[in-house]
Structures
1.
Amino acid sequence: MSSELINAMGISVHGMKAQGSRIRVITENVANVQTTGDTPGADPYRRQMITFKNEMDRQMGAKLVKVDSIQGDEKTPFRLEYRPEHPAADENGNVKLPNVNTLLEMADMREAQRTYEANIGMLEQSRTMLLRTIDLLRA
């Protein structure tokens, strides 16, 4: 019984680590929403995306979520804004801006936060059940 509870706690901890990494990537994206290139035509900051994978932990006998990769978003185009005075403006006066959509990032952040909190809830439940089991064994 107690080993299952400890495994449940381990699964929750891995989920929290994965969501913590997701929150870090989202935070970097939002922090760089105005980061442009330094020279005319240079690419600005490229939105980073995180992907996860399930990995079997043979010791626990459970699949754990882990970060698979963090890569730049190559599909979403950069935004263009007319700023002829900017050092990164092209010959038409347009500056490439990052392909970061703040609204989308905030929605992703909220989802990651809720998932993180759900893992905390599972961790607390497992801990409470483990402590109750210990109390029962003492009696």
Note: Residues 19 and 132 are 29 Å apart (CA to CA).
2.
Amino acid sequence: MKQNNKYHLVTDLNFKTIEQKPTRFGYAEALLELGRVNPDVVVLDADLAKSTLSGKFQEKYPQRFFDIGIAEQNMLVMAGGLSLAGKIPFVNTYGVFLAGRAWDQIRTSICYGDLNVKIIGAHGGLSVGPDGATHQALEEIALMRVLPNMRVIVPCDSNQAYKATLEAAKIKGPVYIRLGREPVPVITTDKTPFHYGKAQTCRQGKDVTIFACGLMVYLSLVAAEKLQKKGISTRVINLHTVKPIDKKAVIKAAKETRCIVTAEEHQLMAGFGSAVAEVVSQNCPVPMEMVGVRDTFGESGQPWELLKKYHLMDGDIVKAAEKTIRRRRRER
């Protein structure tokens, strides 16, 4: 595995050879570590422990694990109560169920009181694959980031999910972490730093900046390689902390490259790209293009087939970058 010493990132991005793991693997490992070092960490699940991998914690620490059953609203309220008793609850189920069925409980019973609850939304994005539209969380970043006191993290790979989970346990207050189901390329290493609230520059460039989160960071790096062959110098930034967003990094990139692309495995409306646009429009308006799901539900299919059908692939990012560069040139 080749590594970029400057960024501590994998440089061999070949999909056929790069290591791949689900982000939930890193989360499960971190949960076990937290259980070992902190007796106040407790875990709740809604009858999906095998899928979310919280069951690994159950095997090791059964007295600190609670399977609430298919009762997501009750689970969130219970987590709030546990936090008031001094515990650090990690709540697990699919993102669509958390953000959809239990949004009121997250809002009123947790965020309103700024309670110390960690909410882990599995099955994020189209790459869930065969489970289809009912299980593909495409709206929950928007629903979580709008809540006062909520923090939102979208790790790009298994290694980053591990580090983000450990960091979340240190934060006082509610945190939402989005995880995926399918294996995705591992582009970070054990040495790659993770700083909550701080963007991670993966590649420098002067012609256009691509901001991405989750799986889309890998696809953005692949897109940057293709753009480089066309003579376009591309900056790629992993904006893993969607809220609080790193405003300084966004403004700096807008001023220096003068055009931006955002890439997300989520609805475009009110999602990750909208969070970046809020900063850009108020501080340094420049041409922007967004790659994401365009006001539609997903469907059942193989993960990479779905990403291609819904225009979330590296080629789509390349087209968006070229378009925003053309817009910048017309405005001069």
Note: DSSP finds 13 helices and 16 strands in the chain.
